[in-house]
Amino acid sequence: MAAGNGNQPDADVPVIGYCVYCRSRQPMHGAIQVCTQRGGHALKGHCGVCGRAMYRLGGWDSIVASTQRGGRDAGVSSDTEHA
Ligand SMILES: [Zn+2]
Q1: What is the whole-number distance in angstroms between the Cα of residue 10 and the centre of ligand 1?
Q2: Domain ranges of the chain
Q3: Residue 57's beta-bridge partner residues?
């Protein structure tokens, strides 16, 4: 019942998002998948450095895809060029 809202992948996939407060990419903690108004997916969580709320376009699928494609540095390079 606790995990009813955001479905997470099996592995502990690191999520990197852009923190507007740190003005740099930071690890996203407590990320959950949400639906956007455009019908897509996004991840909501909080910055692992400053703890403020952060947001990343693309759901778990894009996270997993980027990790499989780019190795450990997933999401560090331009991750939304095809979107
Ligand atoms: Zn931050």
Answers
A1: 26
A2: 16-73
A3: 42
Per the listing, tokens 């999520």 go with 15
pLDDT in tens, 22-80: 999 999 999 999 999 999 999 999 999 999 999 999 999 888 888 787 655 545 555 55
In angstroms, the CA 52 to CA 8 distance is 21
In the reported structure, the alpha carbon of residue 12 is separated from the centroid of ligand 1 by a whole-number distance in angstroms of 21
* Beta-strand relationship, 53-57 and 24-35: unpaired
Full-model pTM = 0.64
Q: Using a CB cutoff of 8 Å and minimum separation of 24, what contacts does 23-29 make?
A: 25/75, 25/76, 26/50, 26/54, 28/54, 28/56
